[in-house]
């Protein structure tokens, strides 16, 4: 059995809605700008932790928590560890909708 990193059982938790690719991009851009100070023009699918100074272990966990809250989903440890690029994050999130 795969454990879950976050157990977000909040009474005010919003149900995720079916998102389109532009919506997903918009939310991810906001998260990356907020947590990693990535300007919208620099945001792309190829962006990785290796290219981003603030994308360290603490930044990674902030991002995962923010993704969990924004999309109302939980991630397995393996999914958290696989979030190495924006493209990987999109693939993981898309599989949850």
Question: How are the elements arranged and paired?
Answer:
Elements: H1 21-36, H2 57-71, H3 77-82, H4 86-94
Helix pairs in contact: 1-2
In short:
This protein has 97 residues and is mainly α. The chain has a single domain (21-94), classed as Orthogonal Bundle (Non-ribosomal Peptide Synthetase Peptidyl Carrier Protein, Chain A), CATH 1.10.1200.
Shape: globular
CATH class wording: Mainly Alpha
- Rg (CA only): 13 Å
The CATH architecture would be Orthogonal Bundle
Helix percentage: 40-55%
Number of helical segments with 4 or more residues: 4
Features:
globular, 97 residues, mainly alpha, Non-ribosomal Peptide Synthetase Peptidyl Carrier Protein, Chain A, 0% strand
Explain this structure to me?
This protein has helices spanning 21-36, 57-71, 77-82, 86-94. 13% of the residues are buried. The radius of gyration is 13 Å and the shape is globular. By secondary structure, it is mostly helical. Helix 1 packs antiparallel against helix 2. It has a single domain, classed as Non-ribosomal Peptide Synthetase Peptidyl Carrier Protein, Chain A. It is built from four helices and no strands. Residues 8-12 have low confidence and may be disordered.
């Amino acid at each position: 059995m795969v454990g879950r990193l976050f157990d977000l059982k909040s009474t005010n938790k919003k149900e995720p809605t079916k998102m389109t690719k532009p919506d997903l991009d918009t939310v991810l851009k906001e998260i990356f700008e907020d947590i990693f100070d990535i300007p919208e023009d620099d945001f792309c699918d190829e962006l990785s932790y290796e290219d981003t100074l603030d994308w360290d272990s603490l930044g990674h966990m902030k991002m995962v928590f923010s993704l969990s809250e924004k999309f109302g989903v939980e991630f397995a440890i393996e999914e958290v560890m696989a979030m190495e690029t924006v493209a990987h994050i999109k693939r993981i999130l898309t599989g949850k909708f």
